[in-house]
Write a structure and sequence with these properties.
The protein is of the alpha/beta class. The chain has one domain (5-260). It has helices at residues 18-30, 43-50, 53-60, 70-78, 89-100, 115-128, 148-161, 174-182, 197-202, 210-214, 219-225, 227-264; strands at residues 5-8, 11-14, 36-41, 64-67, 107-112, 133-138, 165-169, 190-193. Strands 4-3-8-7-5-6 form a six-stranded parallel sheet, with helices on both faces.
């Protein structure tokens, strides 16, 4: 099936529910597709991307762009759209792992975070998803641009391992920009950039409660735990994002009124 997209400010976000997205991923793998990308959209990422052409190009070129962020759901509601529920990177990783654990020959490679986190991920995979092989893990240098030698080493490690999915947890926008620059050299069916999900999957950080997630307040515990890192995205990026969404809404409304007036003439 063809996934449906919805225009929200500067990108096209997919409106499908998780099972439909997983079905599409499986269909692509069965068809031998290589180098598909899956990214997560939230208000902060869209604000940053608006001033970063490479990041924006990555988001616009994603094969799957999921609505990861309560602000995206709110924006869709304001625009009379079809996105009614978040799909987080955690949802995608858990959904794929649960589904593929019943299938033969599926494998993961984890790129990003730290050696400590990656070892915990490997341990959880070995305990919980015994039929999915972890073909490799790679903790790149933290908080700096990779050299050409480092990029070659990463790509060679991934291609040699030959996983079904390359999971990337290097935080946005670094991870999306890295994928955009190197996706043609990565010989894997799916490349999924999921950021902080590595820490949640490893258990080194706790997600907000299910109740907080369900009412769109997952950001609040993160803000309280990491105010120095999270304040900008919540108190700067979110208002900027909502301004552009409201501008889009009013522009569409004026356009609809003008179209109606033209028909009446």
């Amino acid at each position: 099936m063809e996934l449906q997209r919805e225009h929200i400010w500067n990108v096209q976000v997919h409106t499908n529910q998780l099972p439909e997205i997983l079905d599409t991923i499986d269909a692509g793998i069965a068809a031998g597709v290589r180098g598909s990308t899956l990214f997560c959209a939230n208000p902060h990422s869209l604000v940053v991307a608006n001033d970063d052409p490479l990041f924006l190009s990555a988001l616009r070129g994603a094969d799957v762009l999921v609505p990861d962020g309560a602000g995206i759901v709110l924006a869709s509601r304001l625009l009379d759209g079809a996105i009614h529920k978040r799909i987080t990177g955690s949802d995608v990783m858990a959904g794929i792992a649960e589904r593929w654990n019943a299938l033969p020959g599926r494998s993961f490679f984890f790129l990003g975070s730290s050696n400590e986190v990656l070892e915990k991920i490997k341990s959880r995979m070995a305990r919980t998803y015994t039929n999915i092989e972890v073909r490799g893990v790679y903790a790149p240098p933290f908080d700096k641009e990779f050299s050409a030698v480092e990029n070659d080493r990463i790509i060679e490690s991934v291609n040699r391992a030959g996983p079904t999915v390359l999971w990337i947890g290097m935080t946005a926008p670094k991870q999306e920009k890295w994928v955009q620059q190197h996706r043609r050299r990565l010989d894997v069916p799916l490349i999924a950039a999921v950021g902080a999900v590595f820490d949640y999957f490893a258990g080194t950080k706790k997600r907000a409660s299910t109740a907080a997630q369900s009412i769109g307040l997952e950001w609040l515990p993160r803000l309280l735990r990491e105010p120095h890192r999270m304040w900008r995205r919540n108190f700067v990026s979110t208002p900027i994002f909502l301004y552009h969404v409201l501008h889009q809404k009013f522009t569409l409304s004026r356009s609809a009124v003008n179209d109606e007036s033209m028909r009446e003439q």
